[in-house]
Amino acid sequence: MQSDRASRTRRHRCRHHCTPTSCSASQQRQLLDVLREQYVELTLEFFSTFRLRRGDLTAATAIEFIIGSALHHMSISQFASRIGLYTEAEVSLPIFTDSLRTVTTREAAYGITQSQLMEWWPTIADGV
User: At the top level of its lineage, which domain of life is listed (predicted)?
Assistant: First the structure.
């Protein structure tokens, strides 16, 4: 599904053969207005479809989302490095991969139970 705004942006770029640095001020404004509308549309699409799957967070399908009408799957490590939270080197360290946990209904190697979480949570507060 492609919006009219997306096609207008492509037409603008093709018709004027410009980049934001070579456009006139009015052309820059027009281009940025269209891009801002696309940004909102893509952001809403991403956040409304983002899903963290239960189970192994290192699995290649741990995260699922749609952006630009395309379905994407990736692990937590891939997602963290692609959005710039961590570098590729950081997400490959055992301190990162060993700390990935999900809340489970029963004890599992990849998760913690709700009761374990409730015991742990107050220990990270200031002054405790």
Answer: Eukaryota
Number of Cβ within 10 Å of residue 124's Cβ equals 7
What is the C-alpha separation between 63 and 73, in angstroms, rounded? Answer: 6
- Residue 97, judged by CB atoms within 10 A of its CB (0-12, 13-18, 19+), counts as middle
> Cβ(64)–Cβ(72) under 8 Å?
yes
Domain span at 17: 1-48
d(CA 47, CA 51): 9
Count of structural domains, the chain: 1
2 domain residue, yes or no: yes
Could you tell me how far CA 128 lies from the centroid of its own chain? Answer: 33
Q: Is the pLDDT of residue 88 over 80?
A: yes
11 is a domain residue? yes
DSSP letter (8 states) at residue 37: H
Helices and strands in the chain, H and E counts: 6, 5
Query: Could you report the per-residue pLDDT of 35-81, keeping only the tens digit for each?
Result: 778 888 888 999 999 998 877 788 899 999 998 899 999 999 999 99
Separation of alpha carbons 102 and 95, rounded Å: 16
